[in-house]
Each structure stands twice: as C-alpha cells, then as structure tokens.
Amino acid sequence: MTRNALGEFLTARRAALRPEDVGLPGGGRRRTPGLRREEVAVRAGVSADYLARLEQGRDNNPSLAVLEALSSALLLNPEEHHHFSLLAMVAGNESRCPRDQSADITVPETIETVLRALAPTPAFVTGRRLNVLGWNHAWERFVTPLGLLDGDQRPNLAWYTFMDPAARSVLRNWPEVADFFCATLSRAAARWPRDNALTETIDMLRHSPEFDRRWQPHRVSAPLSGSLRLEHPVAGQVEVPFETLRADHDHNVVVWLTDQAQIQAPNLRLVPDRAVNE
C-alpha cells in the first residue's frame, strides 16, 4: 500500500467510468479515459481543486459527507464503498494501524472445532495472506492428490495458483481463480497496510508475470462464493462449489461443497462416509 492509496483509488475509479454511465453524452475525443475530474467534482458537489488535492495526496482527511458524496458520484457498490471508507480512515494514519501478524499463523480453538464439525464436508481456514492455517481430514484427503499439501510449509493458495506449475492443469478455471485471489489480497492489503509479512507475500508474488498483470491495488470485487473446476487425479473432471464464511476479522472458513458435486455426477465418490474419529 502506498501512502496515497486513497488518491489512487479515486483516480482509478474515475478512469473506469464512462460518461454514459452517469448520464453524460458519450463519444467525442478525450485526452484521458473515463470521467474528467471536473465532471466528478460537479456530481459530488465539491470543487475540482479539492478533488485534485485528494487524488494527489495533498489532502487526506475528507469528511464523512464528502466520502458519501464521492461514493455516489463514482457509483460505488457497497463493497467498494466500504473499501473507499477504509482507505480514507487509514490515509495519513498508517502508523496507527495495527501491526499484529500473529493472527495469520494461529487458529482459535473455536474455529478448529467448526472445521471438525463440518466433516465429512471438506473445509479449511485461511488467514490474511491466503495461508491455509488449518483444515479437516476430509479436505486433506481431497487435496492431497492435487499436490497442494506438498512440501514442509503450510500451503498458500495464491502461491500454489501462481507459482506451482501443476496448478494450471489442476484448475480448469485458472483465470477466474487467479483473479479471485488477487482481489482477496488487495482487500487484505487495504485493511492491514502495516503487515510486513503480507506486503512481502504480495511483493514475491509479483515476480509472477501473471500475478503482476492481474494485480490491481484497489480491486475489491472478490465474491465469497463460486466454483472450482478441477482436473482431479482420482475423481476426474469435477466442479466443486465453495462458500467462504468470515469467522472473524482475521480468518475465513472455506467450505468445499463436494456433496453438490456428487449430486451432479452421482458416480463420483469424492469423500468417504463420515469417519468415527472425525
């Protein structure tokens, strides 16, 4: 995260809108893509000079009324509005943001209990950096043939997707998954600007040309549900829906709904029946 993250977001969002999106005549020649600064300023009821100061980082303390007006002018959806408000809260106050990184390496016992209770449905928990911090036996059995648990380190979903050559053959909808993880890390970077481990993870991932091409610092539209289309070494081609449950501000519990995949393909047996020791 740069010190002018708020300004970067405003500039990027303004460039992404077309005149016709806000009821202005389309067509014509424009020096830059998107809306002009003056057009956004008029819609928000602020001066173009003030908007320029925000975009250039010369002013980083907009009032709540200004935030609401700019959100409306830029057609932000609820998730984008939340992200924008978070950037405004952090702007100029990075030194006051929490630096605690311990939450990304530990899992509360309550969440461990939830993972066990979800069996035989595969489930796992992720932290800020998309590290997989814990999982149940059903998920371990399902992903072991995919190579996700190879090595001595705890797996990282983004690292596997972009850095492991096997991921391209395992994930048949690789581009969708790659975009999803980029957006997830972007949201985390906005929330935890002083988490050095998170910053280092993103910096290392940017050595991947695919990650670097997809990386947008303020891309926030990552859905909490979707589907993985897998080429599973044991089950063959299978589509597994997933749901992400926000356990707390640090942890997400991800559930792979393999029972739905089996309904779609009754001959598949993705996970064994509930084991007594689970």
CATH topology of the largest domain: Beta-Lactamase
How many β-strand runs?
5
Tally of domains: 2
> What is the CATH-assigned architecture of the largest domain?
2-Layer Sandwich
Low-confidence stretches: 273-278
Q: Outline, from the CA principal axes?
A: elongated
Average pLDDT, rounded to a whole number, is 84
Distance N to C terminus: 41 Å
Radius of gyration: 22 Å
Strand order of the largest sheet: 2-1-5-4-3
Strand content: 5-15%
Q: What pattern of helices and strands is seen along the backbone?
A: HHHHHHEEHHHHHHEEEH
Classify the secondary structure makeup into a structural class: alpha+beta
Question: How many H/I helical runs?
Answer: 13
Helix share bin: 40-55%
The main sheet comes to: 5 strands, antiparallel
Protein name: Helix-turn-helix transcriptional regulator
Organism: Nocardia callitridis
Pfam families: HTH_31 (PF13560), MLTR_LBD (PF17765)
Domain HTH cro/C1-type: 34-81
